């Protein structure tokens, strides 16, 4: 698998993008590496034209008197679509960077208690500034097998979403376990998800209409990545939600000491 007895990936993260230099990689790692490089390059290449569009739109918006009234609305639509594209490009770059972090890490026993506690601590001030109480509850010591960077990414996505789509109340990260599984729930008192939207939330680039209309939105990639990571470790993810009162994202993984089979090796996400 990736990072286990394979080659060494040298990662250089610069101002403009990510460069990945490889030294004798295993064939699987080579194709994975190529995909990461493509992701990094694509997002980097998108930035130039996007900045050009953005600048032109801003210049035009500064002189509304030169624009036909009928076109004013179209111009702001172009502006917000451009912002959306920039977010996606930035997310893709982030994705490539995080993949680069993961490549050298071999699957190991990961204690979820400190990992989740640290993440919650990282976001607790942001949450408080937003008027939301973010808490962590643990009812067992829980260990799973995988790459810590991947678990961090997965739970960061869920916590960030919960905070992004909650305007009042609280967000709770709950860790527990059953006989064979680690269970993590990220529960919020946010806007919720409509029943007809529930099957779509884990699809790539899907966003609810409400989320789409937000000026500072994400790319719709977060939950697709979250799901890919979960399944990579033989886990499951599902969501229950009531529109207007909140959502609960559940993640389940085989416990480290209950895992007879080794987790599958890293695969390109997507
Ligand atoms: P985004 O970058 O838009 O947050 P995600 O893939 O993380 O992308 O989420 C997809 C969509 O699912 C979001 O746009 C939003 O409509 C919905 N969603 C995700 N998490 C929540 C949540 N905790 N509460 C309400 N809606 C959510």
Helices, by number, come to: 6
Low-confidence stretches: 1-23, 259-267
Taken from the alpha-carbon principal axes, the silhouette is: globular
> Main sheet, how many strands, which sense, barrel?
5 strands, mixed
Q: Strand order across the biggest sheet?
A: 4-6-7-9-8
Helix content: 40-55%
| Structural class computed from helices and strand pairing | alpha+beta
Q: Nearest-angstrom radius of gyration?
A: 21 Å
Total count of strands: 9
Bound molecules: adenosine-5'-diphosphate
Record keyword descriptors for this entry.
270 residues, alpha+beta, five-stranded mixed beta sheet, two-stranded antiparallel ribbon, 6 helices, 9 strands, 44% helix, binds adenosine-5'-diphosphate, EC 2.7.13.3, phosphorelay sensor kinase activity, phosphoprotein
Topology diagram in text:
Layout (H helix, E strand, L loop, with lengths): L7 E6 L4 E6 L3 H35 L7 H35 L4 E4 H18 L2 E7 L4 E4 L1 H17 L4 E9 L3 E8 L20 H4 L9 H11 L3 E7 L3 E9 L16
Parallel strand pairs: 4-6
Antiparallel strand pairs: 1-2, 3-5, 6-7, 7-9, 8-9
This protein binds adenosine-5'-diphosphate (ADP).
Structural commentary:
The protein is of the alpha+beta class. 44% of the residues lie in helices and 22% in strands. It has six helices and nine strands, in the order ββααβαββαββααββ. The strands form three sheets. It has a five-stranded mixed beta sheet, with helices on one face. Strand 1 and strand 2 (18-23) form a beta hairpin. Helix 1 (27-61) runs antiparallel to helix 2 and helix 3 (112-129) packs parallel to helix 4. The protein is globular, with a radius of gyration of 21 Å. The two termini are 18 Å apart. Residues 1-23 and 259-267 have low confidence and may be disordered. Bound molecules: adenosine-5'-diphosphate (ADP). Adenosine-5'-diphosphate (ADP) is lined by residues 157, 161-162, 165, 188, 190-193, 201, 206-208, 211, 217-224, 247. Adenosine-5'-diphosphate binds at residues 157, 161-162, 165, 188, 190-193, 201, 206-208, 211, 217-224, 247.
């Amino acid at each position: 698998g990736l990072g286990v007895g394979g080659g060494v990936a040298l990662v250089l993260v610069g101002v403009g993008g990510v460069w990945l230099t490889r030294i004798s990689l295993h064939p699987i790692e080579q194709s994975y590496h190529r995909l990461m490089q493509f992701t990094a390059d694509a997002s980097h290449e998108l930035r130039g034209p996007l900045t050009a569009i953005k600048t032109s739109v801003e210049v035009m918006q500064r002189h509304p008197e030169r624009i036909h009234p009928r076109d004013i609305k179209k111009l702001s639509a172009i502006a917000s679509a451009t912002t959306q594209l920039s977010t996606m490009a930035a997310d893709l770059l982030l994705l490539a960077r995080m993949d680069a972090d993961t490549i050298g890490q071999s699957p190991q026993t990961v204690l979820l208690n400190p990992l989740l506690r640290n993440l919650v601590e990282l976001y607790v001030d942001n949450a408080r500034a937003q008027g939301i109480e973010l808490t962590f509850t643990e009812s067992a010591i829980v260990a799973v097998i995988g790459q810590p960077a991947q678990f961090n990414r997965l739970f960061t996505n869920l916590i960030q979403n919960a905070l992004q789509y909650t305007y009042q109340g609280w967000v709770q990260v709950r860790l527990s376990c059953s006989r064979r599984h680690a269970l993590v729930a990220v529960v919020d008192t946010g806007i919720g998800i409509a029943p007809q939207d529930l099957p779509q939330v884990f699809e790539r680039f899907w966003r609810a209409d409400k989320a789409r209309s937000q000026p500072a939105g994400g790319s719709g990639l977060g939950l697709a990545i979250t799901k890919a990571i979960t399944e990579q470790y033989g886990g499951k993810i599902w969501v229950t939600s009531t529109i207007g009162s909140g959502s609960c994202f559940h993640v389940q993984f085989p416990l480290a000491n209950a895992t007879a089979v080794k987790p599958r090796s890293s695969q390109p996400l997507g």
